[in-house]
Design a protein that fits this description.
Elements: H1 3-23, H2 28-54, E1 83-86, E2 92-99, E3 102-104, E4 107-111, E5 116-122, E6 127-130, E7 137-140, E8 146-150, E9 156-161, E10 174-180
Parallel strand pairs: 2-5, 4-10
Antiparallel strand pairs: 1-2, 2-3, 5-8, 6-7, 9-10
This protein binds dinuclear copper ion (CUA).
Length: 200
């Protein structure tokens, strides 16, 4: 019973709205600027979409917490467990700790043309990590794990830079990644030791 009168009323509202829109006088110059600003908005939305779908540039979507104050006691981020590891399925996983003022381990070697999953944590304050020419650019917020997957297309040495101001030594906070040709790279043989007998 109720639905009958609603539809014509809705149509009438829509017609009025369209008529009102048509009645608005828009100056020629104003129209140009509206078009221009819409084009700029469209351009940015397009760039974000292309980056997200084709370049793998995404905001960190999953929230994973960790206790920054006890990283050394935490199984995953204990000193022996840091650096490059290959898991049972053959995925290359790299665990890194950022702390004033370096990234640990200071130097790692990874294969080229291989998806690498980096897991970053901070042991003290907010840091950032940026590897030029890759999609690696994220904040490392204390208390959270920042996970990013990236691929290095070419062998070479890449700098790892901190890009969030973290104190007086911020400018000197960096480390290195050596990217080795896929066929020459060998997975590190160190077994993930749980127990911490070899303190370096
Ligand atoms: Cu760490 Cu800036």
């Amino acid at each position: 019973m109720q639905t009958e009168p609603i539809k014509p009323k809705y149509d009438q509202l829509l017609r009025d709205f369209v008529a009102q829109l048509r009645a608005i006088h828009i100056d020629q110059l104003e129209r140009k600027w509206i078009t221009l600003s819409m084009l700029v908005v469209g351009l940015f939305v397009g760039i974000i979409t292309i980056d997200a779908f084709f370049h793998g540039v995404n905001p960190p979507s999953k929230v994973e917490t960790v206790d920054s104050a006890s990283l050394h006691l935490n199984k995953e981020f204990a000193e022996d467990n840091l650096g490059v590891q290959v898991d049972a399925k053959g995925n290359v996983i790299i665990r890194m700790v950022a702390g004033r003022y370096t990234f640990f381990p200071k130097h790692i070697s990874v294969p080229s043309e291989t998806p690498l999953t980096f897991r970053w944590v901070s042991m003290d304050v907010l840091h950032g990590v940026h590897i030029p020419m890759t999609n690696m650019s994220t904040m490392i917020v204390p208390g959270y794990v920042a996970e990013i997957t990236t691929t290095f297309p070419k062998p070479g040495d890449y700098p790892v830079l901190c890009n969030e101001y973290c104190g007086l030594g911020h400018n000197h906070m960096w480390s290195n990644i050596s990217v080795i040709a896929k066929e020459d790279w060998k997975a590190p043989v160190k077994a993930p030791a749980k127990g911490g007998s070899n303190n370096e």
